[in-house]
């Protein structure tokens, strides 16, 4: 077993949104303090972190000062500029590693990596211009989705093509960015596995959650997902294969489509994941603590679940329902402390305990 | 229903120990920020609070600045100097109220108040000197415990008398402080009820927990406590009567002895209570959130429990067992971030989920 981060050490978190906020609370529970780095002033995580730095990603001095004050660095989102990461990594370990970030930051790299592991993914082809789009339509078929290779977020940077005549408009919509055409998958449901790998290489998975999206945004995750025992086992095996291949350290969200032919990996996120928020009320060690345990060299929680839970995101004006939700039995409210309500903005979530683990 | 504290408002907490730390996290979950006031630098709560003031209790300027920056004030311990409270209360509401503090700060006032409500308490008599001690022994009988009227903490300021010959040494031990002699109660077990009363007067109780003390310090709390259905109902009724009589707002810990003749109230604490830490893993709304809900004018959680839990305190060197505990299934670790391990010091606690609510 590798040496654990000493009690009282400071963990640096890149990004100060709700994921960093919940990571910070979990780290405190294990006796650590957190230092959050975010270009925006007063981010949600700063309310519960020991320290916060407000500085842009290209402020070398601020980055170096931040790195000097922390023992290990993690992140809550994938789009951290490469130059900042180079600078930080020269001083402190970044967990999960750069490789995980590189793979997941680019949809083409990601799909190529996943299919290289022998995992099923949606048909895909690279797109750079009108010619390659035409060729991609040939390969992938229609309908399909044209997505920018670099990450969009919550459905941004994605255009649907139903006929060849949609091609010019689609190309225009993504404004010439390197892209990937993905075929549609005829799936019964979408699930995700929140998996973790420790510093010692141990892998632990939480039960798969069943996700419902609307307008490209996750609305609910329900455990248990409607899966057969063999699908459940497959889901954990798929996640484990990905984590091991990346020599990964930390929590990863793996989204999968359930089809009659088996599981198809949709995408991976090298961080704690919205579809894992249910673990806060369903497990002794939730995904946030699991991530901190992994990057701090602790033994992982085994992922066992003691309750059935449905997580509902509170998006934009959903937050106005909080006074009603507060009267519900067995509902736990998590608000993110964001100052401004905006349409499509994740303001919080609710975990509803629906019974003992079934 | 009274108006709830607006989303994003700042709650002031007097004291920055582990109770303030867990209150701060709960307040953040409901969208509030916390400002902690503590004379000691870098207290545990400061790691997860939006703001911390380090200043003594007699720093009028610091107190006034603190009050000006918060919307409501609460506290995590009872021994706050009266002058500080006077100053703060002139600017902002203090919840729970001064009356609850006054009653619980003085063992004689407390016992008199409780027996005035028609509740059973241990036999008691005031002690000021050798003569009144002799009279008290006459009234109360022996063995008995001589306790200072003002609060000690975790068994400090208490002397046991088994014979009349112990009287001089006992008086010397409490150094002439105003005191109370309490008779021994022959009890089967000790339980506590964590009860809450909202701004609108609603009362909600968590299930009674069964407590085990050693050397005057709480070691474990187990739910469910071994109580009959009628004892369980009695416990909630007793707690409700106390809260209503004080027009109380917030969470209170009520310790009771279970005897063949019924429940005897031992003491009350006008705050979240160590014996309520199990609620973090057993309830959708835990005692910390319940307290914040009460003082912020939210509807209370109903106190329903979905798991059986045993809470174990990690006292002093117990914390060295954390690496082993981290490998246990269904154990949730809560460390307080205290820099120094000292004998008898509460360093953290573990909640072990032992099954679905039974």
TrEMBL record, chains A, B:
<protein>
    <recommendedName>
        <fullName>N5-carboxyaminoimidazole ribonucleotide synthase</fullName>
        <ecNumber>6.3.4.18</ecNumber>
    </recommendedName>
</protein>
<dbReference type="GO" id="GO:0046872">
    <property type="term" value="F:metal ion binding"/>
</dbReference>
<dbReference type="GO" id="GO:0005524">
    <property type="term" value="F:ATP binding"/>
</dbReference>
<dbReference type="InterPro" id="IPR005875">
    <property type="entry name" value="PurK"/>
</dbReference>
<dbReference type="InterPro" id="IPR040686">
    <property type="entry name" value="PurK_C"/>
</dbReference>
<feature type="binding site">
    <location>
        <begin position="152"/>
        <end position="158"/>
    </location>
    <ligand>
        <name>ATP</name>
    </ligand>
</feature>
<feature type="binding site">
    <location>
        <begin position="182"/>
        <end position="185"/>
    </location>
    <ligand>
        <name>ATP</name>
    </ligand>
</feature>
<keyword id="KW-0067">ATP-binding</keyword>
<dbReference type="GO" id="GO:0005829">
    <property type="term" value="C:cytosol"/>
</dbReference>
<feature type="binding site">
    <location>
        <position position="190"/>
    </location>
    <ligand>
        <name>ATP</name>
    </ligand>
</feature>
<dbReference type="InterPro" id="IPR016185">
    <property type="entry name" value="PreATP-grasp_dom_sf"/>
</dbReference>
<dbReference type="GO" id="GO:0006189">
    <property type="term" value="P:'de novo' IMP biosynthetic process"/>
</dbReference>
<dbReference type="Pfam" id="PF22660">
    <property type="entry name" value="RS_preATP-grasp-like"/>
</dbReference>
<dbReference type="InterPro" id="IPR013815">
    <property type="entry name" value="ATP_grasp_subdomain_1"/>
</dbReference>
<dbReference type="GO" id="GO:0034028">
    <property type="term" value="F:5-(carboxyamino)imidazole ribonucleotide synthase activity"/>
</dbReference>
<comment type="similarity">
    <text>Belongs to the PurK/PurT family.</text>
</comment>
<keyword id="KW-0547">Nucleotide-binding</keyword>
<feature type="binding site">
    <location>
        <position position="213"/>
    </location>
    <ligand>
        <name>ATP</name>
    </ligand>
</feature>
<dbReference type="InterPro" id="IPR011761">
    <property type="entry name" value="ATP-grasp"/>
</dbReference>
<feature type="binding site">
    <location>
        <begin position="266"/>
        <end position="267"/>
    </location>
    <ligand>
        <name>ATP</name>
    </ligand>
</feature>
<keyword id="KW-0658">Purine biosynthesis</keyword>
<feature type="domain" description="ATP-grasp">
    <location>
        <begin position="111"/>
        <end position="296"/>
    </location>
</feature>
<dbReference type="InterPro" id="IPR011054">
    <property type="entry name" value="Rudment_hybrid_motif"/>
</dbReference>
<feature type="binding site">
    <location>
        <position position="107"/>
    </location>
    <ligand>
        <name>ATP</name>
    </ligand>
</feature>
<feature type="binding site">
    <location>
        <position position="147"/>
    </location>
    <ligand>
        <name>ATP</name>
    </ligand>
</feature>
<dbReference type="Pfam" id="PF17769">
    <property type="entry name" value="PurK_C"/>
</dbReference>
<keyword id="KW-0436">Ligase</keyword>
<comment type="subunit">
    <text>Homodimer.</text>
</comment>
<comment type="function">
    <text>Catalyzes the ATP-dependent conversion of 5-aminoimidazole ribonucleotide (AIR) and HCO(3)(-) to N5-carboxyaminoimidazole ribonucleotide (N5-CAIR).</text>
</comment>
<dbReference type="InterPro" id="IPR003135">
    <property type="entry name" value="ATP-grasp_carboxylate-amine"/>
</dbReference>
<comment type="pathway">
    <text>Purine metabolism; IMP biosynthesis via de novo pathway; 5-amino-1-(5-phospho-D-ribosyl)imidazole-4-carboxylate from 5-amino-1-(5-phospho-D-ribosyl)imidazole (N5-CAIR route): step 1/2.</text>
</comment>
<dbReference type="InterPro" id="IPR054350">
    <property type="entry name" value="PurT/PurK_preATP-grasp"/>
</dbReference>
<dbReference type="GO" id="GO:0004638">
    <property type="term" value="F:phosphoribosylaminoimidazole carboxylase activity"/>
</dbReference>
<comment type="function">
    <text>Catalyzes the ATP-dependent conversion of 5-aminoimidazole ribonucleotide (AIR) and HCO(3)- to N5-carboxyaminoimidazole ribonucleotide (N5-CAIR).</text>
</comment>
<dbReference type="Pfam" id="PF02222">
    <property type="entry name" value="ATP-grasp"/>
</dbReference>
């Amino acid at each position: 077993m590798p040496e654990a981060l000493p009690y009282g050490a400071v963990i640096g978190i890149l990004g100060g949104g709700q994921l960093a906020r919940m990571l910070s609370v979990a780290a405190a529970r294990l006796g650590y303090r957190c230092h959050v780095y975010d270009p925006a002033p007063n981010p949600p995580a700063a309310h519960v972190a020991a320290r916060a730095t407000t500085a842009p990603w290209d402020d070398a001095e601020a980055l170096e000062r931040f790195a000097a004050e922390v023992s290990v660095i993690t992140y809550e989102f994938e789009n951290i500029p490469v130059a900042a990461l180079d600078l930080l990594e020269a001083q402190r370990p970044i967990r999960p590693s750069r490789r995980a970030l590189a793979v997941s930051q680019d949809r083409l790299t990601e799909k190529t990596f996943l299919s290289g592991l022998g995992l099923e993914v949606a048909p895909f082809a690279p797109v750079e211009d009108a010619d390659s789009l035409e060729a991609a339509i040939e390969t992938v078929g229609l309908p399909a989705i044209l997505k920018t290779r670099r990450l969009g977020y919550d459905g941004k940077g994605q255009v649907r093509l139903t006929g060849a005549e949609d091609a010019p408009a689609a190309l225009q919509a993504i404004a010439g960015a390197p892209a990937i055409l993905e075929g549609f998958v005829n799936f019964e449901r979408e699930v995700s596995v929140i998996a973790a790998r420790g510093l010692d290489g141990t892998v632990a998975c939480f039960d798969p959650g069943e996700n419902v999206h609307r307008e490209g945004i996750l609305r609910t995750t329900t455990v248990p997902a409607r899966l057969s025992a063999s699908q459940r086992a497959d889901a954990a095996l798929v996640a484990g294969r990905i984590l091991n291949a990346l020599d990964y350290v930390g929590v990863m969200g793996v989204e999968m489509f359930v089809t009659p032919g088996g599981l198809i990996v949709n995408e991976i996120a090298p961080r704690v994941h919205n579809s894992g928020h249910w673990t806060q009320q369903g497990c002794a060690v939730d995904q946030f603590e699991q991530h901190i345990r992994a990057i701090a060299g602790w033994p992982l929680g085994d992922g066992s679940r003691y309750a059935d839970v449905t997580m509902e995101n509170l998006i934009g004006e959903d937050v106005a329902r909080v006074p009603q939700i507060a009267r519900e039995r067995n509902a736990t409210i998590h608000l993110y402390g964001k100052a401004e309500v905006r349409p499509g903005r994740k303001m919080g979530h609710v975990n509803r305990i629906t019974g003992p683990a079934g």
